[in-house]
Specification:
heterotrimer, A mainly alpha (308), B mainly alpha (366), C alpha/beta (515), A: mainly alpha, ABC transporter involved in vitamin B12 uptake, BtuC, 13 helices, 0% strand, globular, B: 366 residues, mainly alpha, two-stranded antiparallel sheet, 68% helix
Chain lengths: 308, 366, 515
Amino acid sequence: MSVEWLIPAMLTIVTAATPLVFAAVGETVVEKAGVLNLGVEGMMIIGAIAAFAMAVTTGSEVLAIFSGAIAGMLMAFIFGVLCVYLQSNQVATGLALTIFGIGLSALIGHSYVGNTFVGLAKLDIPGISDIPIVGPLVFGHDALVYFSILSVASVAWFLKKTRGGLLVRAVGENHDAAHAIGYSVTLIRMGAILFGGAMAGIGGAYLSIAYTPLWVENMTAGRGWIALALVVFASWKPWRAFFGAYLFGGITIIQLYAQGMGVEVSAQFLSMLPYLATILVLVIISRDSAKSLLNAPACLGKNYHSSG
Amino acid sequence: MGTRLTLFRLESRPEASKAMVYLSPLIAVGMTIITAMVMFALLGVDPVDAIATFFIEPISTLDGVTELCVKATPLILIGVGLAIGFQANVWNIGAEGQLIMGALAGGGLALAFYDQGSILLVPAMLICGTLGGLAWAAIPAWLKTRFNTNEILTSLMLTYVGLLVLSYLVHGPWKDPEGMNFPESRMFHDSALLPVLIEETRLNVGWLLALLAVAAGWVLISRHIIGFQIKVIGIAPLAGTFAGFKEKKLIWVTLLISGGCAGLAGVIELSGAIGQIVPAISPGYGFTAIIVAFLGRLHPAGVFFAGLLMALTYLGGDSAQITMNLPNAVTGVFQGMLLFFLLASDVLIRYRVRVGRRNIHTRLSE
Amino acid sequence: MTNAASSEIPRLELIGVNKTYPGVVANKDVSLKVRPGEIHALLGENGAGKSTLVKFIYGVQKADTGLMLWEGLEVQLANPNAARKLGIGMVFQHFSLFDAMTVEENIAVGISSELAKGDLSGRIRKVSAQYGLPLDPGRYVHTLSVGERQRIEVVRCLLQDPALLIMDEPTSVLTPQEVEELFKTLRRLSEEGVSILYISHKLEEIKKLCHTATIMRMGEVVAECTPNKETARSMAEIMMGDNLISPRRAHHRTDGEVRLKLEDLSAVSNHQHGTNLTSVNLRVHAGEVLGIAGIAGNGQRELMEVLTGETLADTAEAIMLDGTAIGRMDPIKRRQIGIGLVPEERFGHGAVAGMSLWENALLSGATRMKLLKKGFIKKEASNDFAEDIVKQFRVKTPGVGHAANSLSGGNLQKFIVGREIVQAPGVIVVLQPTWGVDAGSAASIRQSLIDMATRGAAVLVVSQDLEELFEISDRIAVISAGRMSDARATESITVEEIGLLMAGVGLDGNTVDVV
């Protein structure tokens, strides 16, 4: 095996993993606050079309990313109002968010089909990026890849080391106690939900402006759901979610390279790999129910209503 | 704190309001239509015109009404199955995949016995289709009962796998050899097609099966102990185990029922409405049926009406595309909105909304 | 008592507090004074309005009308943070703790951010040493005992130098010895000038600890008194009004045939931080009420679950019901043989909140009352069964078609206990029969259990309420850390002995150091 083959493969893993990193890290914070938002797929796809539309219209990458984040937040806001304020069932609301997001993105995207965009620029430091192997691997990515790593680090730090993170965890662990002590469960949860929406939106934006810089209906293809599985896989720990995402990135690119290496398997079977891998991962992680319960935020999925 | 917004407050009702259980879907439909009209106005289309095109034009002819029933058949079938499962808090959201696998099982049989011309073929296809969906749903059931995995994620992942299996078959082994390389199977023999109920329309026996499913589901959920157990486990799992109900058994039962219904819907769609295996068997019936189940209050009778309404959104989407040149993705937006409004108005079942701050507060200082 | 009346301005004063919930008057014109350094009891039955009042004082919720004065000045508290800033600390009955977080994190969450900065764990160690409340800041809460958890709450308050400490039913989870330790700490705080508002319905404790008492009934203040000048009986009369009834029974019997036998019963808890049962031995005879005392979380829940069949015993013979080995039988078959079961939690365990009363009757009565025909529900028979329960046990409800959660706690508990008794089982097991139930319902529930025994059934009552156990039991055993003491006749056992057994002293020679 030659190194020329390896480097593009590694780069593909990075681009395949990055949208999952964003979505999974965002959802980690949401779930830490005790909220199960199954609408990640819907938020991602709205983020994707919003970013793509902005990119095509203005040509600005920064504006595109922002519009992806804001679109994801708007979606999350709908979810938050329904679940946090109106006490609706979180599972049903998350599903609605996904169905709505896919429909709305197709509606908005209707007039953008066939448009193209140059794609997010790679970081290119003359001299350094040309260093063999290390150059492209460490310095050859676009800005969002670095931002994704930064966001994992910040979220891990936030949850573990800051008072804000302590409050998020407290609300997810025992919302009645957090309320009794005097915190606003609704505000903290709403904040977490909006953050999760923004991150999912950026994840979607990455798909449409960097991964494959064009708009295709339903282009998230279940990545939002895989991100949800990653959160469980990672036992609600940001860095583990990060590594999980890269593992999935690795599985995703097997299908691209297997054929190149002359493996005689239909494309469809290779495309099944990420989904089957997700199931496998869920089995491994859920098998020990006592252990998986221990890591889960105790109030996950439970609505809170104060009678006061 | 809590839900103390400045604009309104929620106050628990002493007992859930039965009236609101039935009113809430109507409120949701009303809100959706109003929002849709605003949306149409923003898109530069006459709102009244658009609503007429969407909701009235498609069912203004007999042909339209039968088409509505054809579209409603899979939605009602799947919706009944899902409603039963959701009552047990078993979240099978992979009905789309089960539909596809049911269609493939039944359709495969039709291709295998292509020129036998047997009158047993259709019943055999229906059975195979049901078993296909059931088998696909058995996987999340087994994983959940054996390994405690989340059925939401596994059933959904299996939907993607199912779609790829379908894609593989129509691109490969099952491709029509005389089909000019289109990814489609050959047309089914007449003996593999469901009998039509009204000549010159597509309304077929499948509709009757859907009605049968509604009746059977109704009896199960309101008269049979299994239905009672499903409800108890769904609302209060501990009370269920206290009473001696077996949660694992109920997970199996509900997943197999919903998977079987979805598989049956798939084979009916294939042999009643399409007549061959194509890459897109379903326009997302398996997902829309989730909304149908909720809109129908997780009750088979409600699912019947909700199924008809949702079928109308599909027809409306088509007619809006043809006569007003609107993308038919509008359908998905409608469906999502409807579910949002439904979930939002459901709050009224358990809570009263009090507008404004409590006026009996006296200011205590300053 | 030295500081009690020494200051003119009360630390806390409430004037005319009113609070109404939909359909319930929780507080009606309540006024109250707490002086600096005073230990002031707030005494009343469940539902008397104590919790509502405390929520107002601590800023958790607002009153409809009324004034609160702090050191003589009017204040209006927006939230508990404002209360803490004034110097009000609170120890909750249902602890406001977070299992998956450390002691230090739990304390940090509960105090202001300025206070949480710096060497918090050092200060925790210092305060806990100072007041005899040993705590390790690095431990995770779910690894701690109930008593230790309470210390976290107390230390959390003390770190804020409170001027008023509110304690809500602090002793319901403690052994008598732990109660003594707590009282020492409270007396010391009182001597340092801290006022304490002590909420309880335990009269002996209040006599021992408190300087003054305000007694509430049905939302109103009915009396103020000096506890050590009253008798427990006199205070109980004021507290309960006409509801004070002692159950009567004809005779005590403990020599009937053995109807329920637990032999070397062990079971692994299926709860996250549960207690395993280790080799429990117990015999319950026909005609007797056997009481099991113990602190919450010592295996009561697990005992109940292994008796209902929600978890299975290691061997079938470990549980013998009227001569049948039922240890590995499912709940439905056990009920058919004749065991009635009332779990602790009414909603979500003993009953389904949103379901109608007849459906809740069907829940445990389906097989024994023959309410099914080939799997189909006989609705009329179920209705009749439910109406029978309502009639016999005087459950107040407009009809059996109404949801369980439309009933008051006491009425629902009567319905659940009644549901089991009407099925006429040979053995009935009741966990916390009168938890959170009004005095009238509690008395009638206790009476119906005694009647059950009189008719020849074996009655097993598991309760944390010692007064209740002494009142109705023929024999008492104690459960501690999943082990069961020998049962002893009620006349021959003292509260002190039970306290030691609760702490695990004298169980199979397995002694625990009680300091």
